[in-house]
Amino acid sequence: GRRANFSRFAAEYRPAARPRRTGNDDAVVADGVVENERRQARLDPATNLAELEAKTRRLSDFLHESFRKGIPPNDVAAARPELAEVANEYFPDGVHSFGRHIDFFRELDATNLAEAWVRVDAPVLAIHGELDYTTCTADHEYIAQIVNSVRPGRAEAAVIPKMFHAFNLRDSVQQTLEAPWQGPLGGEVVDRIVEWLAEARQG
């Protein structure tokens, strides 16, 4: 299902306060998960939008309980049966999602990632694939905006045509939905990074 919308947060877990890169660095993690659920479902023209809104509201409530209040997912599901379905979808064993412990997501959700980005004293290239539905162009533009707000000209956002989340190429949104992780590495993203590194080196 669309549990893939959570995969962008599945970086290597490390405790404490060094935030790691996510695809939604401008947003609180829980809010980003809810928005991704909504955005991805809307790609399917058969989606019942009224039911989708009801589900995203339940998802928001569940993440508030489990992330913000620190209540274990299984306890949330037991206390609020209407949230059991989303709890089981996102944390099927009660503590892990995509192999990452819930504490990882709680720490990331509590971290002000924009505050972290303003401390970055290095050039930044925020890359987004045109067909990457797990994040959006606005996320990456905002990362660049955050950095440039304190160090003008140090960051830029780039959109790579027909690229998905893993730098792989797909021909259409439909193809991406059906087989997201297939397809060749996008040569354009490699060229863009090499070009950007050369520019950054020149200062």
The percent of residues in helical segments reads 40-55%
Radius of gyration, in angstroms, nearest whole number: 18 Å
Low-confidence stretches are 1-27
Strand portion, in percent? 5-15%
> Spatial order of the strands in the main sheet?
1-2
Overall SS class:
mainly alpha
Query: Alpha-carbon distance between the termini?
Result: 45 Å
Q: How would the global form be characterised?
A: globular
Give the mean pLDDT.
86
How many strands?
4
Order of helices and strands: HHHHEEHHEHEHH
Main beta sheet, described? 2 strands, antiparallel
Helical stretch count? 9
Please characterize this protein's 3D structure:
The chain is globular and about 60 Å long. Helix 3 runs antiparallel to helix 4. The protein starts with 28 loop residues before the first helix and ends with a helix. By secondary structure, it is mainly alpha-helical. Strand 3, helix 7 and strand 4 form a beta-alpha-beta unit.
Give a brief outline of the structure.
The strands form 2 sheets. The chain has a two-stranded antiparallel sheet with strand order 1-2. Strands 3-4 form a two-stranded parallel ribbon. By secondary structure, the protein is mainly alpha-helical. The protein has helices at 29-41, 49-68, 73-79, 84-90, 102-110, 113-117, 137-150, 173-178, 187-202, and strands spanning 96-97, 100-101, 124-129, 155-160.
